User: What shape does this take?
Amino acid sequence: MNGFLVRRAVVALLAAAVVPFAAAQSGDPVRLGVMLPLTGGAALAGTSLLEGVKFAADEANAKGGIKGRPIQLFIENDEASTTKGVTAVRKLIESDKVIAISGTYASAVALAAFKVAREYKVPMISAGSTSSNVTDANTPGDPWFFRAFPGSDEQGAQSARDIVKKLNAKKVAVLYENSIYGSSLMEQMKKMIPQYGGEIVSVESYNGDERDFYSVLTKVRAKQPDAIYIAGLMDAGAQIIKQSREVGMKTALIGSGSMMSDKLVELAGPASEGFAVSSMFEPATPNKFGQAFTQAWRQKMKKEPDLYSALGYDSMHVLIEAARRAPKLDGASIQATLKTMKDVPLAEGPDGTFSTFDEKGSVSFKIGLAVVRNGKRQWLPFD
Amino acid sequence: MGKLLVPLVAAVGLALLPMLGLGGYVLNVMVMIFIFTMLAVSLDLVMGWAGQFSFAHAAFFGIGAYTAAIAQRDFNTGFWLNLPAGIVTTGLSGLLLGLPALRLRGHFLAIVTIAFQTIVYLALTQWKSVTGGQFGIEVRPVEGLATIGSFYYLALALSVITVAIGWALTHSRLGRAWQAVRDDEVLARAIGLNTTAFKLAAFVLAAGFAGAAGVLVAHHVRGVTPDDFTVLTSATIVAMVVVGGRGTIWGPVAGAVVFTALPEVLGFAASYRLVIYGFLMILMIIVMPEGVFGAWLQRRGK
Amino acid sequence: MELLSLFPQFLANGVVNGASYVLVAVGLTLVFGILNIVNFAHGEFYMLGGYAGVTASTLLGFPLVPTLIVVVLCLAAFGMLAERVVFRPLGIRDPSNAIIASFGLSVLLQNGALLVFGAQPKTLRTDLANVPVQIGSVFLTGQRVLIVVVAMGVVTALFLVLRYTWTGRALRAMAQHPVVAQISGVNVRKVAVITFAIAGAMSGVAGALMSSVLLVQPTSGGMLVMKAFTVVILGGMGSIAGAVLAGVGLGVIEAMVSGYVGNELRDMIGFFLVIAMLLLRPQGLLGQSTERS
Assistant: This one.
């Protein structure tokens, strides 16, 4: 076993010696890293996000790449695990020599990974990680982790406002997944619903792999809420929607951003009628850049884009744009460019959304509310 | 002592490895190998030597890691205090599990250890006020050893110590008593050995080492989250011991190296990796239940 | 207090879940009672049953009854395959080897299913799934009622087979005294094959029926097999009556804990019960006294 490792180490050593030599020539690729969960529970999201990421890279390459050099993606599977994520980040930076990374989806992994990347002075841009505590770990004014969409704090606040104001719900129940994602949204709801004039009547949690919600829904039903906010992922969300109708509840249901997909409507069946979900992107978006993206996607991929396609796309295309504008092609320059870039359009959000990162590396924009009618999602107008 | 020549040379070689300038990624993998070596060798004391069963090793691993994280968060301790704290806490947990559980037979013991492992995992995710739930807890790096290059030596040292102590114990009177229990417990009791005490000793010692590994991993990854300490982790450690070779000390070391390095090499085929793991486990236990190293020893005529 | 009025609903929820536990646990206890094998891959029979059911009904368009027949045939065959390929070669050398091998099999099947079927959860669409059934203040669906009915039917059928047929007597003889059974002419190999076939089929049916209630994913079997072991230990390894009692019991206790204490504790309660049972009365409620080590 030792011999095996030594051989691989020697190969790595030789490669490390050769690559900088090769990089001196022009025309050789710009190396960008991608880190996502491609297997395991989050694989569904991870693989969809990857499609969006690759789409952006292919699009840029078709237009000549970055300063005439092709973009080469190095893709690592972090399996939504922090230990794998930390290893993957080191591999991307050390072995694959990437200058920036698009990743990842699971917030815990993003948090651990970006701290390592920061040591190496390689910036990371979120590929779906929502939790505000990742961007909170940035030094204000000098972020190394960016997110081209609002974090969980803002998402939760906007959802709270929509629930009370747009859906006219005064008594709200919260059902949240026992994870960073679910817990942070739940905390926001607890804080913000009262601020908008509503009242939290019930808070219940569930484990991520739970599929039977009869008992907990029965309990919630007894509290007679006007609306139930579900903070979690698609699989459980579909079950909650379906089963809430089975136990005789007609309460309005609102889901967090990750439930925005056709698969959820399919899984929940007719019970999904009237289900509302915070939506940052729909194919029918009024955002002109988003429309152009949708057209291009339809043509090339022969299917409709969804939130994950747009998330992945925005993540990578902002990174590419920053690399294009950076004075030098290294991590520190890209980070400096990302900080000050204000006019790169995003496919998500309402029309006229740009990549204006705040001091903690997040972008703020209005999130819409989509409601399922006749099996399809319809966007309520932004206000 | 001639038997120890190869391991000694290997240890020296490993000590010199960082000077080859291979970069943080390779050193990172090596550190994980060292940590899993500690886990596999200590589990071998229970499974290979005392002949018992434990699917709870990842639980001890986690208890050690979380002890370090919580101690640092609440009492501002550093690595050198966390290490003994972790070892003591896990040792006590090993006692807590071992005392009642070791009265049971093979499969019952296995199931209790799995139940214990699952309870610990569920507690780590649910007891949010103490463990931070799925958020986990952040851990500061070891003072003075913040770079991967320097941390490498700490990990190497601890794993060498673990293997050395393991080797010494198994070649002592304690080791012979364990073998007696493993080979025929009824007979061992008949000749006057306090089998329960010896089984318990294996359990507690193994837990202590797992706890030390846990403290190490907490400072290495700079955080603790529940998903690193699941039944699957336990099963992987069991696989390292079994495929490497139960009761051979070096077998589990080999197992730790293979099962940690393999995913890195097969990187792109990660989804196939677990299929291969499972297949290997089945194949090895049918064809070579004594493990790779065990089979090699047998062929050498030991 | 208002929560008391929810008691019938919680009870009904518990019985439905308990019924699926019973189907899975009885198969497990048979394998242990008759063959002395602990099979951790048992949950994967459940999971594969779910996928077989979804494939038969969605892809091939079969209605409910033919779907279940397909599931029974497929999973019985699969159980026999597992016995032949994994458990028989292990022999009786070391029973702990079976534990490790079955763990490996479980990992293999879970990830194999992931590769073949993908990570996206699937659900079985049956007509009964959406038929609401309301008994007083208790809400259920037709599908959930069906699970209870099928479980009762299968267990009764199994009981009759074990008691009144030659095959059944051979199985019972093996469970009670393997050596004497062999001397009396029982074909040990055939018994092993049949036992695994039954275990596979029962789990598969449970998986197929529950896939319209819960969803099928490659990981569906993981937590379920833990629950099945809990039931088997609580009821007594090798005791079918024990498995039935403990299965329904666990389902109800979980529903009560989830409703009255907290939903997060639902999965943990079973494990505490197992540890308590193993310490206080290792043979379970209805099992025979086992020797302590």
